[in-house]
Amino acid sequence: MNCVSFDITKYGAKHDSDVTQAIANAWKDACAAPTRSKVYIPKGTFKLSKAFFAGPCKNPIGFEIAGTLQAPSKANGFQEGQGWITFEKINQLTIYGGGTFDGNGAVNLTFKKVKIVAPKDSWTTDGIHLGRSSNVTITDSVIQTGDDCISIGDGTRDLEITKVVCGPGHGISIGSLGKYENEQPVEGIIVKNCTFKGTSNGVRIKTWQASRDGIARDMHFSDLIMDNVETPISIDQEYCPWGVCSQFKGKPSKIKLSDISFKNIKGTCSTPVGIKLVCGGYGCKDVKLSGIDLKYNGKDGKLTSVCKNVKPSVSGYMNPSACSH
Question: Any idea which residues are catalytic in this one (predicted)?
């Protein structure tokens, strides 16, 4: 970003010290700058008690974080509904830089009314990636990106995603899982009341072909709207992009998938495969489909489903028929 930089160290910020006042002063000057500006957090760890970044600002403004902003270990001094870092009433804000917002504790986390935008042709730009986290909620948010809107890595437990609008992007994905040794189980995932617009997938579980052993269970997807989505419902245990698994051909995924439900999912598909349930060496256990109403808006045949190593239980209306191919 070509702009005027307001480095917090020029305002007295020092490593491993509380920089609350320094960062507030840097923001104030950057927000009032007569040209495009940014607040800059250099490499290193800086402690931050609480920050409220308010607009409107005179020009587009950036927040470049190359280092780490670390929250207090105890949430003292916070009132109900207050955030640790809050951006409010700001137009044309860009947050970037590859640094870290370190929550510094096991306190539950909520993403609410967040908007994340990246070009649809930008590679590996996951909107939100979670891993080895528990009791996280993502709600009332819009995510437009070139990769997964939300990707869910190993060790994620008790995650609830509601009222998210996703698209463009690759959808909301659990995985990919099984690429590395000693991955932790994924369990307790709820995705509901979400809308997908022009994405390559809707909701997806993906594990690497020839993967290590692992577990993903208790995953439930319901009350979803699909708008021109390539594959709205997908379990892919033969995931292997870029052709890197040719040497593993015929070796199945060893991630055990179980207790999975897809319920009340409606809308349109841009390919003939509305449901893809391709499971690995252990098969997928206790998979339920209920109230699926999809329509194919193309001309390359009729809407269908593709299944492998799975026998889902079916109830309610189903279009396409479960495992019809």
Answer: 170
The closest alpha carbon to 224, from 206, 197, 259, belongs to 197
Q: Which of 66-75, 83-92, 214-223 has the highest mean pLDDT?
A: 214-223
- The 10 Å CB-count burial string (b at 16+, else e) for 150-159 is bbbbbebbeb
How many domains are there within the chain?
Answer: 2
Q: Is 220 known to be catalytic? A: no
Same domain, 160 and 239: yes
Based on the domain organization, do 157 and 59 belong to the same domain? no
Which residue in 15, 129, 170, 220 is the catalytic one? 170
Q: How far apart are CA 151 and CA 157, in angstroms?
A: 13
Given a cut of 60, whether residue 1 has pLDDT beyond it is no
Residue range of the domain that includes 302: 105-324
Do 170 and 211 fall into the same domain?
yes
The predicted model gives 144-150 an average pLDDT of: 96
Question: pLDDT tens-digit profile of 40-60?
Answer: 999 999 999 999 999 999 999
Task: Let me know: does 139 contact 112? Beta carbons within 8 Å.
Answer: yes
pTM for the structure as a whole:
0.76
